[in-house]
């Protein structure tokens, strides 16, 4: 029953579960007719907001049992409730999904290095004219691990999405409950716009980071494994790749700090704009009675212009950030091949070395592409968790 709640393909065979065969039925239904609620699979009990909210509340105040000996030598057990950090509570809410997706992600990373190795063996087979069965074996292994990698990637993404949605549901329910119970003194510290930002923006930021959270360890692992394989083919020349990546990291780190500054400025401007809009709507009668619409409109426009300016600068810097990381694999390949040829006249770029190394460099495209997004989401998530934790800890 627990597995059935987590996997909407329960009742199907192993192969349909692996390829999410039940989604084909939904796609065909949507193509032929308009999708309605009975057409969809019922939501599992552990994915419902009520269940997730109860698990969040239970994890927030976890019971701690202490055993001690009193003056008479009698063993006494005392229990108390201790408050836990919000990040630890959120991880406990989605611990099953995060653990399973991390395990699948690890095997997906390992499976991704088999096709380049098989490609190298295949090129050596062509150069040396080995028996035909060698070629068939290498080609079959290449295709098989490409397929396995795709399946593992899909299941890891599916489980991470489940975990992210559970966390978002738990946080949304907790915020709604807190708004109803918060004390008057604490309520005065938060405007309606700030509370709306907590529900609509900060909760979303946490969920968006969880979708890519495994890349925090997956990207370094992929880079290390790539360097190990490159050392096998290029030797010390692959250190030029490390130098290129360090230079890119230095540039993008500086850009990331500036991005964070403009993002905070944009959030402050957004809070100010929502606060001004709320004040205008509350006092709209007085404003219209005194014909104060133009000055108040200009005030909101000025705040909006500051917000748009921060968004524009942030977007430009984010584009620069992404461009540098996307160009890094190509620059690394150029630097490594150039260093390899200049180190010794005996070094030759045979097809097996060149194409295998190019395949390995292409494996760096994903980490280099996703790392800026992961760092950006991590920065935003940390800020969102801090704001959510501060609000949830207000007096009731």
TrEMBL record:
Pfam family, one: ABC_membrane
Entry's transmembrane regions: 106-124, 136-161, 233-259, 322-343, 349-371
Residue span(s) of domain ABC transmembrane type-1: 99-380
UniProt entry keywords in alphabetical sequence: ATP-binding, Membrane, Nucleotide-binding, Signal, Transmembrane, Transmembrane helix, Transport
InterPro entries per UniProt: ABC1_TM_dom (IPR011527), ABC1_TM_sf (IPR036640), ABC_transporter_C-like (IPR050173)
Signal sequence residues: 1-21
GO cellular component: membrane
Keyword Ligase recorded: no
Molecular-function GO term, any one: ABC-type transporter activity
ATP-binding is among the record's keywords: yes
PANTHER family membership: ATP-BINDING CASSETTE SUB-FAMILY C, FI20190P1
Protein name as it appears in the record: Putative multidrug resistance-associated protein/mitoxantrone resistance protein
Gene source species: Ixodes ricinus (Common tick)
């Amino acid at each position: 029953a627990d597995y059935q709640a987590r996997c909407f393909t329960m009742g199907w065979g192993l192969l349909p579960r692996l390829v999410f065969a039940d989604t084909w039925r939904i796609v065909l239904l949507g193509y032929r007719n308009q999708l309605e609620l009975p057409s969809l699979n019922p939501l599992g009990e552990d994915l419902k907001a009520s269940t997730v909210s109860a698990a969040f509340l239970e994890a927030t105040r976890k019971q701690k049992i202490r055993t001690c000996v009193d003056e008479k030598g009698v063993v006494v057990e005392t229990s108390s409730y201790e408050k836990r950090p919000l990040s630890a509570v959120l991880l406990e809410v989605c611990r099953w999904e995060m653990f399973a997706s991390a395990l699948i992600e690890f095997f997906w990373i390992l499976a991704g290095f088999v096709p380049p190795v098989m490609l190298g063996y295949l090129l050596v087979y062509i150069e040396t004219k080995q028996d035909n069965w060698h070629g068939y074996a290498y080609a079959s292994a290449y295709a098989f691990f490409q397929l396995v990698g795709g399946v593992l990637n899909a299941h890891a993404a599916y489980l991470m999405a489940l975990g992210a949605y559970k966390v978002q549901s738990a946080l949304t329910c907790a915020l709604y409950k807190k708004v109803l119970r918060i004390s008057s003194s604490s309520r005065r510290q938060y405007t309606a716009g700030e509370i709306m930002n907590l529900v609509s923006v900060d909760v979303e930021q946490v969920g968006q980071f969880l979708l890519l959270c495994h890349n925090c360890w997956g990207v370094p692992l992929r880079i290390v494994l790539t360097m190990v394989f490159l050392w096998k083919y290029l030797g010390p020349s692959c250190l030029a790749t490390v130098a290129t990546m360090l230079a890119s990291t230095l540039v993008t780190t500086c850009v990331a700090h500036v991005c964070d500054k403009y993002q905070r400025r944009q959030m402050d401007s957004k809070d100010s704009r929502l606060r001004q809009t709320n004040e205008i709507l509350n006092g709209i009668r007085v404003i219209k009675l005194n014909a104060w619409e133009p000055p108040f409109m200009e005030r909101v426009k000025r705040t909006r212009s500051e917000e748009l300016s921060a968004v524009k600068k942030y977007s430009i810097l984010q584009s620069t950030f992404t461009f540098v990381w996307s160009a890094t694999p190509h620059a690394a390949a150029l630097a490594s091949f150039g260093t390899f040829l200049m180190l010794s006249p005996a070094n030759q770029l045979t097809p097996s070395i060149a194409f295998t190394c190019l395949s390995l460099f292409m494996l760096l495209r994903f980490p280099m592409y996703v790392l800026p997004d992961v760092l950006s989401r991590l920065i935003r998530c940390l800020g969102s968790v801090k704001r959510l934790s501060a609000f949830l800890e207000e007096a009731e």
